[in-house]
């Protein structure tokens, strides 16, 4: 690769500044490794879009942004450098890894991928056109604009049910539309939703189209069991139908599964020496803040051990 930008040699490059990336930066810098954490937005990642976190040890309840700020403060306290930039490419040449942003190239023996995931889209007519005009993927960001309205939430996992409950503080009524007749969400979240009189469910159904010219007017539904179609008027549609890994940077490196999640062992190592993955971008069966920080601590520690082995060569 031709490197024409300013170059910085460090020990560890963490790409992504959510809880996993911040914790990896904490462990690496505390082990005295020169560490940069490159994050394009505000550190905290998806946690910043979470109203209340109730399942992070040490806090019975804390707002997502507040928790993110606390993790950030600790993570940066041992000398890790936080860089605000968008990573364009990652190239690996033997032991050296080149991480290019729009302004610079960072070179290190260790790269920790902590790039997280983003919300899957439905891919139906009206979704893109009305995005930001009633179609949303973030209840915490947009719920406030829907006071006394009827909202639809699509999905049956933790996000759909948790955010559906969250939206009832603004909306008059929240209808959760799920493609099966059984939720995937944790039981405690299900119980909250079933006990909330503002929430009702439409089962076995999918959204075929979101209607409206300049704002959402309703959704066209199809019942998958009866094939019956119906129109449900509403003013907002919140879509929570799962996650897509932000793994484009490593898609050509042979370290992802068929869906794009990065495959690691329990030490967060990929099959490429010195390349680790942590948090939501990793192939795992549980995506929580607590598991993300666990991943980050593993990778930060393994980075130290890996660099020791290079020094011993
Ligand atoms: P998820 O667990 O993958 O659930 C996605 C839901 O959307 C499923 O109910 C799925 O239906 C449905 N779905 C998928 N594709 C669809 C489509 N094309 N049309 C209609 N419905 C579709 O995703 P998530 O709820 O965003 O959660 C992601 C991860 O974050 C999970 O690991 C979750 O546990 C975690 N999380 C945890 C918390 C918490 O602990 N408080 C909160 C939020 C998220 P099926 O059920 O039929 O597959």
From TrEMBL:
> Which reaction does this chain catalyze?
[thioredoxin]-dithiol + NADP(+) = [thioredoxin]-disulfide + NADPH + H(+)
For this protein, the record's SUPFAM superfamilies field holds: FAD/NAD(P)-binding domain
Q: Which Gene Ontology MF annotations are present?
A: thioredoxin-disulfide reductase (NADPH) activity
Q: Give, as one word, the top-level EC class.
A: oxidoreductase
What would be one Pfam family of this protein? Answer: Pyr_redox_2
**E.C. code:** 1.8.1.9
- The molecule here is called Thioredoxin reductase
């Amino acid at each position: 690769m031709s490197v024409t930008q300013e170059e910085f040699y460090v020990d560890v490059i963490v790409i992504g500044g959510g809880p996993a990336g911040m914790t990896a930066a904490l462990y690496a810098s505390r082990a005295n490794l020169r560490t940069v954490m490159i994050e394009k937005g505000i550190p905290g990642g998806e946690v910043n879009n979470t109203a209340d976190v109730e399942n992070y040890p040490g806090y019975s309840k804390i707002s997502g942004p507040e928790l993110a700020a606390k993790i950030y403060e600790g993570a940066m306290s041992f000398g890790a450098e936080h860089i605000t930039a968008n990573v364009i490419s990652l190239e690996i040449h033997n032991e050296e890894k080149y991480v290019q942003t729009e302004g610079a190239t960072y070179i290190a023996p260790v790269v920790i991928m902590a790039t997280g995931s983003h919300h899957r889209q439905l891919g139906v007519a009206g979704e893109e056109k009305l995005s930001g005009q009633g179609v949303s993927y973030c209840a915490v960001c947009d719920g406030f604009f829907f006071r006394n309205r009827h909202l639809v939430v699509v999905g049956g996992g933790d996000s759909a049910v948790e955010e559906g409950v969250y939206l009832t503080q603004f909306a008059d009524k929240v209808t959760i539309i799920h493609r099966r007749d059984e939720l995937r969400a944790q039981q405690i979240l299900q119980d909250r939703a079933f006990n909330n009189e503002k929430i009702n469910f439409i089962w076995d159904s999918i959204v075929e189209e979101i209607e409206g010219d300049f704002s959402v007017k309703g959704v066209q539904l199809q019942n998958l069991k009866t094939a019956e179609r119906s129109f449900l008027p509403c003013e907002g549609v919140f879509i929570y139908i799962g996650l897509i890994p932000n793994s484009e940077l490593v898609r050509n490196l042979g370290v992802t599964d068929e869906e794009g999640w990065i495959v690691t062992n329990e030490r967060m190592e990929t099959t490429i020496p010195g390349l680790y993955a942590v948090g939501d971008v990793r192939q795992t069966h549980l995506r929580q803040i607590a598991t993300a920080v666990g991943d980050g601590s593993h990778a930060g520690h393994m980075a130290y051990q890996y660099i020791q082995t290079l020094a011993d060569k």
